[in-house]
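User: Here's a chain of 414 residues. Predict its fold as tokens.
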Amino acid sequence: MKPGIHFHSDCPFFAGCENLLANLFQDDRFMESHGVSFSYRHSHTYESGFRRRVTKQFNVIPLKLFDVSSISTYANSLSFRPGRIMIKAAAVLLLVKYWFLLWNALVLWRVFSRERIDLLHINNGGYPGALSCTSAVLAAQFCGIRRIVYSVNNIAVPYTSVQRWLDLPWDRVVANSVSRFVTGSVYAKQKLADVLRLAPSAVTHIPNGIEPREITEDKPAVLRRLGIDEKRFLIGVVAVLEERKGHACLFKALKQLKGESQTRTLPLVLCAGTGRERQSLVNDVESLSLQDNVRFVGEENNVINLMSAVDAIVLPSISHEDFPYVVLEGMSLGKPIIASKISGIPEQIEDMESGILVEPKDVNGLAKAIRSLIENPSLCARLGGNAQRRFNQRFLATFAVDKYMALYSHLLSS
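Assistant: Prediction complete.
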């Protein structure tokens, strides 16, 4: 009989951290040798992304689960500022988060008890991350599921706030219940072990991998659709519009380039993605007089087409990264990449060999790196070619799937 593996994930949309699931669910070897089921916190946005990436038919279970982010979203939508403060304060004082956690555990217990689960794999965007991921550990304990893999796709949050100290009892339950934690980078592995006080053997790092995606629209077609001059040097920034992604630093670097008389050609930056900081970033662009140098293109139906059309990829993140998939996507396309020297990114690209690394928030460094690519086409070609070779040697989806299958086999046989 095939071993039953159940996956649970919780993310507001099908973000980069969900690529792991797409890799596994689309792999014939894995799906044919295991009885697979999957539960997730339902939203139309997540379901749309999931269906675009996962085409195989199997037991998929959307669930009505609660997360405290919904309270913050509602509070932030109110125009009455005291009302926003009162709602958020009430949620903290009434420990709403932990009532949600227990409710989610009950919902998941009902799901888990109906399935034949030999191993549970929880996929979380970070740690502590999504609330229902902790709930899934509790539900597994109620159901007697003893083999649990828990993947963490960002840097664990230390106990530097009252809220995190309140999480401590739940964290101990998670740490003592999970068979093996998995991170994408060595850096994230060490941080998670430090926060949860884990033995080295309790955490494994498996580098993220992706399957190169099909390009369905060539560069001339993309440029025509967006109304872009084919002579412009194009930079792609594919990231959610949040402060942690560093868009503001990139715009300051562009302003610096604009003020340098020796820079003959200014790039056009295409920002793909949506997020709560969009209006703030639009205001930044206007205040810096960069309307001719930055364009917000929103959410692309097939963002790989846009990435294929640009000359370089930039990821100027300032915090909360691990092993970003957008870097891997850019490498797979043979694009030169400029990225922050943060978390697991230096494990992906080698500085001045397969990309350019800059310190987070280093405006001068970003400007210098962009200028070097604009003025030196041979450097672009060398970095892009090296990046593509490194990707093919290390970061194909099949490499990650093989390592996860080996981990599952080890835990199921123990």
